[in-house]
Design brief:
This protein has 7 helices and 6 strands, in the order E-H-H-H-E-E-E-H-E-H-E-H-H. The protein is an alpha/beta fold. Strand 3 and strand 4 form a beta hairpin.
């Protein structure tokens, strides 16, 4: 594994991020999709591998299979298993656990993954990092667009 791997405890993040909690009146699927969209952008902006794991142990309407989502691996734990157990298994079998960073505000889980050799970050701190990374991405896109408008030679070669 050459790049950093971000493992996200999906429902933990859904409960802690204010912008996702605002969607609480909507379906869980809408909340998950919003998180996945944010994580996809974050992965693109930082060139990190991103996996989000959702608890499937108590889901009444768990998807039949893990979702294929470009840019973000979306996994659901099996019935009787938790997202924490899946995350711990990933770390325990990883060749380079030190390159894995787990996002959760569950202090017990953070201690466990750190004991296994991974890094951890709270959902609150990760939200700030995501906001910063996406802000920088937006700034770069705006700068690129501005330069294209100002440079007539660039437009000429694209036509």
């Amino acid at each position: 594994m050459s790049q950093r791997w971000i493992l996200v405890d999906g429902y933990n993040v859904l409960h802690f991020w204010p912008r996702l909690r605002k969607l609480a009146g909507r379906s869980l699927e809408v909340q998950r999709d919003a998180l996945i969209g944010i994580l996809r952008q974050y992965g693109d902006a930082t060139n990190c591998r991103v996996t989000v794991v959702f608890d499937g142990y108590a889901a009444k309407h768990k998807p039949e299979r893990n979702e294929l989502t470009p840019g973000v691996e979306v996994l659901f734990s099996d019935t009787g298993k938790t997202a924490d157990e899946m995350i711990e298994r990933f770390i325990g079998t990883a060749a380079e656990p030190g390159k894995i960073r787990v996002v959760t505000s569950d202090n017990l889980e953070r201690g466990t993954v750190e004991a296994l050799g991974a890094q951890s970050v709270s959902t609150e701190l990760f939200e700030m990092e995501v906001t910063e990374a996406l802000g920088e991405l937006k700034r770069l896109v705006q700068e690129h667009s501005r330069l294209r408008r100002l440079n007539p030679l660039h437009r000429h070669f694209e036509e």
